[in-house]
Amino acid sequence: MNRLRDISVNNKCVVIRCDFNVPMEGNKITDNSKIIKSLDTLKYLLNNNCKIVILSHFGRVKSEEDKRKNTLKYVGRELANLLNHEVKFVSECYGEKVRDIVMNSKLGDVILLENTRFMDYPEKLESSNDLELAKFWASLGEIYINDAFGSMHRAHASTAGIAKYLEHAIGFLVEEELNNLEILINNTPRPFVVFMGGAKVDDKLPIIKSLINRCDYLLLGGGIANSFLKAKGADIGNSLATNDENILKEIKELLKNYSDKIKLPIDFTIDNGIIYDIGNKSIDMYKKYIDEASIIFVNGTCGKFEDDRFTEGTIMLFETLKNSGKTVIIGGGDTASAVKKFGYENAFSFISSGGGATLEYIADKTLKALEWMK
């Protein structure tokens, strides 16, 4: 698998897949971390006098209304400010208009195409990895760079298929992710502790089943902890938890087979009978296992951290991790957002940009789009 510095890009037109799926409120970007993480690769390409064509998705597109809401126009403005370089935003991502603009641009130009998932309506061409669509995007350049780690767990036309038609390499962001996550895949120091939180256990159960065999302790929080407590027979009222009987059955098996590894919270912040956070006794208990650890992987939060009334558990967990002096790897997504919200950006060994991609890479030791890059 080529890395960016392995190939010659000087004076070339480069098509690059970035992950600019940033959180927004109205027309305002609330966290530009993903854009910032792309800058090293983009600056390297500019320093090599490249013409740069950027592809990215933004949200899900299942209707014409979604197209109106999920435009990359505002991302283009933010990128131009951060890059200190003009960015041409093209309001389409496919067709002759796109081809003409790219072909008539010059070396040193940066062109951001509209949301690749516009090609998912009315037909799912992007997310089904349609090779004709991939071939069109490939026709816009001479080299393809994938620097969208957070999207590489999906084999889409812009993350996977395009690599079939162009010389390709991974960018600096992806390289950094693979280098830093390697320790969680091969020769992981022991004891290895995992904290898993967040809302939905249904999505994360396959990851939990993979990690439970490799970790020494699994500490749980959020809706995931609620689901385990429910499976154990605890009365959690109307708190967020799975209602899927098959999932609950699988959880019961895990609790039976790994009772020595799985640690559940013992106190909670409750409002109107609903669990929204875990309490300080739970964090004190988790501290014992954190202090024993050589390395800790954290994915998810202790509770509904977006609500200022329910932040204490997550803040206490981060503070405990910070003070532990151990190697701590943060697993992207909402976890990374919480780290930034509470001011812990510089407290941990590595903060992944990946979310779901990070989890799948650690569990499967590869990613669907990464396979297309080999």
Describe this structure in words.
The protein is of the alpha/beta class. The chain has 2 domains: 4-173, Rossmann fold; 185-364, Rossmann fold. The chain has 14 helices and 16 strands. The strands form 4 sheets. Strands 5-6-4-1-7-8 form a 6-stranded parallel β-sheet, sandwiched between helices. A 6-stranded parallel β-sheet has the order 11-10-9-14-15-16, with helices on both faces. Strand 2 and strand 3 (28-29) form a beta hairpin. It is elongated. The relative contact order is 0.12.
Annotation, overall tally of beta strands: 16
Helix residue percentage: 25-40%
In the CATH hierarchy, the third-tier topology of the largest domain is known as Rossmann fold
Number of helices: 14
Roughly how many Å is the radius of gyration? 22 Å
Structural class, by secondary structure, is alpha/beta
CATH superfamily of the largest domain: Phosphoglycerate kinase, N-terminal domain
Chain-averaged pLDDT: 96
Q: Which tags fit this structure?
A:
2 domains; Rossmann fold; elongated; 14 helices; single chain; 374 residues; alpha/beta; 16 strands; six-stranded parallel β-sheet
